[in-house]
Amino acid sequence: MAELRYNPLLDSWVMVSAKRQFRPYLPKDHCPFCPGSGKVPAVYDVHVFHNDFPVLTAEPPEPEDVGGGLYQTREAAGRCEVILYSSDHHATLPDLTKSQMKRVIDLWTKTFDELDKDEKHQYVMIFENRGEEVGVTITHPHGQVYAYPFIPQKVKVELDNCKKHLQKTGRNMFDDMIKEEKRFGQRVVLENDYFIAFIPFFTDTPFGLFIVSKENKTALTDFSEEEKNALGDILQEVIGGMDHLFNRTFPFMMGIHGRPSNSENVESYYRFHIEFYSPMQTKEKLKLNAASETAGWAVAIPTRAEDNAVLLRKAIQEFWENGGIKNK
Fold first, then answer.
1. Fewest beta carbons within 10 Å, which of 44, 97, 218, 255?
2. Dist CA 133 CA 251 (whole Å)
3. Which stretches make up the Galactose-1-phosphate uridyl transferase N-terminal domain (predicted)?
4. How does pLDDT run across 11-61, given as a tens digit for each residue?
5. Could you tell me which residues are annotated as the binding site for Zn(2+)?
């Protein structure tokens, strides 16, 4: 059974897929994403394939007859893809060479472009879950791409508020965010010619990093080759820094936010950016939501963005002192 169920309280859709409860927790001595498993090519660099346990499919079944009145259902139409970064079971993004990282971004871009053109899709999101703390069941480094038949609620709220900001001020909200973060300075952790990384003033997780395009671009397909290389660099640097924060593979959820598919032009008020969320508070403590945070969406953060930005800047320096990005 797979379907979409409408939440009239929040004007949003919930994806239901009973099949996903059977996702395997694999033993450490077997990995379906490693060459020789029979699941992936015997030799590969980067690779994309359909998720075995998708919540959205190109040819979904009819929804069950469980709705009525306020309770609408829809077919769970869309796509769920898996992207492998490398055939090396231990090579996370900061472990890749510059050329390997560029191939990952090229595959992200190609997959996004293909799914973005399908008129049934309203939003395409590239994301990664990293670490057992956020529910990862296969440790081989990989990301995913979902093509939704709706705009996810968080993105919809961002779009609405960015549009209101443009109407009120005549300016793109992301330009104003970048201006303020650079003016204050203490929350900025890294910057290159095309992107800036900072833990925003309003972060809702202790190390809730943002990477934002400096140019008014809204999708991977908008970027030049030079910009994609710069995106790869800043991603490897900040994630490499995260791994040096507590001398361990840093668990996080990462989502790439861009323009909706088959929609109005949002270039004047929205912007390509990447958001990170992590349960890590300190080396020993996880930051888990309290009842008021889940029930009321009233987030309470136990640390200051300014203090955590200092830690992350220092950790990025340690990443470089320990070898940094491999130039191949």
1. 44
2. 6
3. 4-152
4. 999 999 876 555 666 666 789 999 999 999 999 999 999 999 999 999 999
5. 31, 34, 89, 140
* Interior/surface letters 275-287, b for 16+ CB within 10 angstroms, e for the rest: bbbbbbbeeeeeb
Establish whether 142 is a catalytic residue: yes
Q: Which residues pair with 294 in a beta bridge?
A: none
Domain spans in the chain, listed from the N-terminal domain onward: 2-321
Q: Is the domain covering 2-321 a CATH 3.40.960.10 domain?
A: no
What tens digit of pLDDT does each residue of 85-141 get? Answer: 999 999 999 999 999 999 999 999 999 999 999 999 999 999 999 999 999 989 999
Q: Where do we find the tokens 């079944």?
A: 61
- Residue 319 and residue 328: Cα distance in Å, rounded? 17
Backbone angles phi, psi at 108, to 5 degrees: -55, -50
Catalytic member of 30, 90, 121, 142:
142
User: Where is pLDDT greater, at 97 or 65?
Assistant: 97
Q: What is the SS3 string spanning the chain?
A: CEEEEEECCCCEEEEEEHHHHHCCCCCCCCCCCCCCCCCCCCCCCCEEEECCCCCCECCCCCCCCCCECCECEECCECEEEEEECCCCCCCCHHHCEHHHHHHHHHHHHHHHHHHHCCCCCCEEEEEEEECHHHCCCCCCCEEEEEEECCCCHHHHHHHHHHHHHHHHHCCCHHHHHHHHHHHHCCCEEEECCCEEEECCCCCCCCCCCEEEECCCCCCHHHCCHHHHHHHHHHHHHHHHHHHHHCCCCCCEEEEEECCCCCCCCCCCCCCCEEEEECCECCCCCECCCCHHHHHHCCCCCCCCHHHHHHHHHHHHHHHHHCCCCECC
pLDDT tens for 148-158 read 999 999 999 99
The angle that helices 225-245 and 305-321 make with each other, rounded to 10 degrees, is 100
Write down the pLDDT at residue 31.
93
- Residue pair 20/14 in contact by the 8 Å Cβ criterion: no
